[in-house]
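Translate sequence into structure tokens.
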Amino acid sequence: MILLINPPLVKPSEPPPGIARLAGALRYAGVPCTLIDANIEAILELLGKTPQSSDRWTLRSVRNRERNLSAIRTGTAFSDLQRYKRAVSDIDRLVQKSAEGPIRLSLSNYHDDHMSPLRSRDLLKAAGEYENNPFFPYFSKRIGDAVERDAPSILGLSLNYLSQALTAFAMAGFVRARFPGLRIVIGGGLATSWARKPGWQNPFAGLIDRIVDGPGECELLKLAGGHANGWTTPDYSTFPLGDYLSPGLVLPYSTSSGCYWNACAFCPEKAEKTPYEPIAPALAVREAGVLAGALRPSLLHFLDSALSPTLLRRLAENPPGAPWYGFARVTRSLADEDFCRALRRSGCVMLKLGLESGDQRVIDAEGKGIDLSVASRALVALKKAGIATYGYFLFGTPSESEPEARNTLEFVARHSGSIDFLNLAIFNMPVNSPDAERFGTSPHYEGDLALYTDFSHPRGWSRSRVRRFLHKEFRRHPAVAAVMVKDPPFFTSNHAPFFCMDRPR
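Result follows.
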């Protein structure tokens, strides 16, 4: 028996795909497993408590708690952006007020002023002081009951984000103290990134029995004495599918690992040498359709780093049976209005586009492989087809300086009528990037587990200058500000499609 846990804290908008995929493989191979989405369970437990604070905002949040949760789950909050923002902010207020002292919680993050998930000594401290974790009252009972009931031989913790790390290690510390014979395995995106750092040596010996690098199906099956039997469908059947904070079930589904393009100079996946391993497009579309038919989601969320052109064509020809969205690269096919309309008819409500820059020289230097003239036509074609776009732009790359950043501002302003949402990010240099040594590095994120490093920008376009430009100029441009104000707080792209569902096909 294997116990798989998704620790808090991440956005509680959909069930965790990682342990669902593991469960599908384990159960298909005849290995029993129990799944706990501790993220949604722990957040709902916090929301059920009445905070000590008596300020007006908190009192209003308590008074409207059930109404706000219902408005998000039924979708009525999405009929008006201001109503949505008020409901989400009130729910977040209750999460905030559930923690005290150095720990700050929100619907999308966990921060501790005294401990950092970037330092192994702090994660070990979190494990040793597990009773101080704000989720301890929840997880000590929940995990304790599950272990005593099911007697698992392995505990698997799915660790994908820094916001989960301190609680994941607090859980590990509790299990090691309470159930010393239980093997503890950690996997997931963040764990994989740690394991692929240059010179990696596991600093958690004695607490964590194994850290899995990459997909965990084969590793867990080997530990459990089973054998992999080929590709298996993820199993979401035991999650509390009606509890997530979205209008109906959002079903996450991945058709690949890695990225089919895999040439962007700034990409962590390239730096970590993550191979591109897709499911055959025909199989992926068929499996997505089977899952959608069985679970009746209100939205299908494709998790791929980029949906391949072949897969997009398959989806256009064989609709999965539910509205869907995901990341895509800008290609000439997306500049074809007929193809975009076919995507819309298949259920596509939004595409996330990693445009990164509005300067062609920067795009070429960073290996992005996008033609901005094609991107311009694609934004217009998608808009005409009724497909929303969530544009991602990256500032401070080694090839960019202020003039190029201003070209990006001009590009976004010029296309603001065709861009529905924006994500603006400042470039982080991966520690294992080939460029790290070339540009000279210095610690930016202190800690032996940091995945990024500061670097000497060849054109003096430092993080502080980039941050100042974004704050004082980019975001304040009237055309940009009109787009930025539409971004759903806390949930961002996870909830953005629900504001676009009523566009005609």
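Note: The two ends are 47 Å apart (CA to CA).
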